[in-house]
Design a protein that fits this description.
By secondary structure, this protein is an all-alpha fold. The protein has 36 helices and two strands. A two-stranded antiparallel ribbon has the order 1-2.
Length: 675
């Protein structure tokens, strides 16, 4: 009886079995390793083989894995293009699979299995030096994509970036200058800038609150205009693409709802179709570039000049690169423009040429989605960036410059009392757009799941703008009534929702922020309001809704007299209400007296304003200190938020790093250009 023939294995598979099987021996023979790296990499088999091994089995094969890792790194120095590609493919697969394993001490075990601590520093330095040379040298685009994929596999090894001990070696060999050169070069930026920004974003957050991060230090000192502008261009391109795609989405919705059956279509459609996923993809997929932007405005004063630039996009380079066919695609898919090229370039060209205008428009989309945790985090990140920007003198001067105007649409939610379209507003200073954005957020997020952290950011941004205007005596041509009424509605909502807000949040602190904005207008409004009548309008609005302030004061008193832990913040609020209540108590009797004297119980706005102007002289107000100052944002105050944000970004990027398709397909055809 004949025995069945054994299935023949590829030679590379036999080598994998020898390396990963405990007790087997692989000869340290140069000819064997030469052959190994000339054989086509079987990514699927190698991945499956490592995935089937337990951590302790990997530890048993540590010596041979260390040798394989070292040989891969050494091979990167050779001239043979097939060997270079195969060594990179092997490294990507090996690291990706080992990083997936659950180790008791991840940071130690991973380095021990892959490299061995005795030679880890020398080997990683050689690996990163070679990677840097590939990225900046005259090599094929696919090779650079493969190098970036390998580096991204390293930096996204685990969700908690600070526990990725592998990054200690990237701190020693600083890739910052390499990434900066990628951003500074127009062609490299277009091909690899997105990955460079993602990598920079993650590296900047490695133990940033525990020790000195060399990438943060380098970023804070970076004064290379080409690199800074390149960073701004990458961020602007990504956000502009999302803005245009959102424009397309909203245009389609408006086209449907404008039909004769729009009401029925909207009603029936809303029963079965949810747009939550669309909003989520628009608002959260770009968190990495937003976080990079946040780090730039937080640490680098020179970057504020980028915000004021009118940028020029390299259209010829874009078109040429779009036509390229690559064997190895980009590591992380870049958000694509869903509009045809000609239409895409014609839509809102002005906004996409200025990063600040693009950011404001993008933020108006992001803040709409606060129903999900991802949406809330993205909105908070956008508001954190805007808060940092409004703390800078140079940025504020640009925002308030009457000669620098932009036509920036702010996307608004459809509400019962309003239907919004896609009208393009008249050009205005960007400070007006920023204030419109804060007003829009304020009036559309009064809900049971109250986003108090977002409201605190929003009110803080308004306060920072006012402090700058008061300091520089800037009379911004803006309808301040929209700010006042939105804040009054916010106070009304808080008072009416006391039963479910107070047990969860310290709303008195937020109310104090709001009242101090009114105090700033009351005390210094004559120095920055656009017209004298605007000051009269402020008093008119306070008196018109005096019941809101009365109810707020009464609510605060209840908690002062109780044993509540909110007693201190409630007491602070009542102190801040002194001037508002003084205005109400001073003018209300005057208005009532005039009404009775003239036998007129329904007064017109002009009649009330006349009474106000005639009685200003007898009004006594308390001078409050510190209204025109604020505590600058400290990064550590949002430590847990940013830690979670980095975890989310790392997880998302890692999920996009596919290694199963890293085959050697027709490699000679493209890599023949490698030198």
């Amino acid at each position: 009886m004949s025995t069945p023939k054994k299935c023949l294995k590829e030679k590379i598979v036999l080598y994998y079995d020898q390396i990963l099987q405990a007790g087997s021996i692989i000869e340290d023979n140069r000819s064997i390793w030469d052959e190994f790296f000339l054989l086509k990499v079987n990514v699927v088999y190698l991945e499956e083989k490592i995935n089937n091994l337990k951590p302790e089995q990997l530890l048993e094969s540590k010596g041979k894995i260390n040798e394989l890792f070292l040989k891969c790194v050494d091979t990167l120095k050779e001239d043979n293009q097939i060997k270079i590609v195969n060594s990179l493919l092997t490294l990507c697969t090996l690291m990706k699979c080992v990083f997936r394993k659950k180790f008791s001490d991840f940071g130690y075990d991973v380095i021990n299995i892959l490299i061995g601590f005795d030679q880890a520093e020398q080997i990683t330095q050689k690996l990163f030096e070679t990677s840097s040379a590939f990225l900046l040298g005259d090599y094929s685009v696919s090779l650079k994509n493969l190098v970036l994929k390998m580096l991204l596999i390293i930096v996204t090894a685990v969700d908690n970036v600070s526990s990725n001990t592998f990054l200690e070696y990237l701190m020693m060999f600083n890739l910052f200058d390499t990434l900066a050169q990628v951003l500074a070069n127009p062609v490299l930026r277009e091909r690899h800038g997105y990955e460079a920004v993602i990598m920079l974003c993650i590296l900047l957050n490695y133990r940033k609150n525990e020790s000195v991060n060399p990438y943060l230090m380098k970023l804070s000192l970076l004064d290379d205009e080409l690199a800074l502008n390149g960073l701004g261009l990458v961020i602007s391109n990504i956000l502009s693409t999302s803005n245009r795609n959102y424009y397309l989405q909203k245009s389609k919705e408006l086209a449907i709802t404008s039909s004769l059956l729009s009401s029925l279509t909207t009603f029936v459609g809303s029963m079965f179709v949810s747009n939550e996923d669309d909003l989520l993809s628009v608002s959260s997929e770009n968190d990495a570039v937003l976080l990079a932007l946040y780090e730039a405005v937080l640490t680098n004063r020179s970057f504020f000049t980028v915000l004021s630039h009118v940028m020029t996009h390299e259209k010829d380079i874009n078109r040429k690169i779009k036509d390229e066919t690559l064997l190895i695609e980009r590591s992380v898919p870049v958000p694509e423009d869903k509009l045809p090229d000609d239409q895409s370039r014609s839509i809102d060209e002005e906004q996409s040429r200025n990063l600040m205008a693009t950011l404001l428009r993008y933020s108006s989309i992001a803040i709409q989605d606060t129903k999900t945790e991802h949406g809330i985090n993205t909105a908070r990140l956008c508001l954190s960036i805007l808060s940092c920007i409004t703390e800078d003198q140079y940025a504020n001067s640009f925002l308030h410059d009457a000669n620098m105007t932009f036509s920036v649409p702010i996307y608004k939610l459809n509400l019962y009392h309003r239907k919004v379209g896609l009208e393009v507003p008249l050009p205005r200073p960007l400070a007006c757009v920023l204030l419109d954005l804060m007003v829009e957020f304020t009036v559309t997020h009064m809900m049971k799941r109250f986003p108090i952290h977002l409201y605190q950011k929003c009110v803080g941004i308004i306060h920072r703008c006012l402090c700058y205007q008061k300091k520089c005596r800037i009379r911004l041509q803006y309808c301040w009534k929209s700010v006042w009424t939105s804040l009054m509605h916010l106070l009304k909502f808080i008072v009416s929702s006391e039963s479910f807000l107070i047990p969860k949040y310290d709303v008195f602190d937020l109310c104090t922020q709001v009242i101090n904005i009114f105090n700033l207008f009351i005390t210094y409004g004559d120095t920055f309001l656009p017209t004298p009548t605007a000051y009269d309008d402020l008093y008119y609005e306070i008196i018109r809704v005096h019941q809101i302030f009365d109810n707020l004061y009464t609510m605060a008193l209840r908690y002062i007299s109780s044993e509540s832990e909110l007693r201190v913040s409630a007491s602070k609020l009542t102190s801040c209400l002194v001037n508002v209540r003084a205005i109400i108590h001073h003018f209300s009797p005057k208005i009532n007296s005039w009404s009775q004297k003239n036998n007129k119980f329904s007064l017109s706005e002009e009649e009330v304003l006349t009474i106000l102007r005639e009685n200003y002289d007898t009004l006594t107000l308390k001078l409050m200190d510190g209204l025109d100052s604020y505590v600058k944002r400290v990064a550590s105050s949002d430590f847990s938020f940013f830690t979670q944000m980095v975890r989310s970004i790392t997880n998302r990027v890692r999920s996009k790093l596919d290694i199963s398709n890293l085959e050697q397909r027709s490699v000679l055809e493209e890599f023949s250009s490698i030198k």
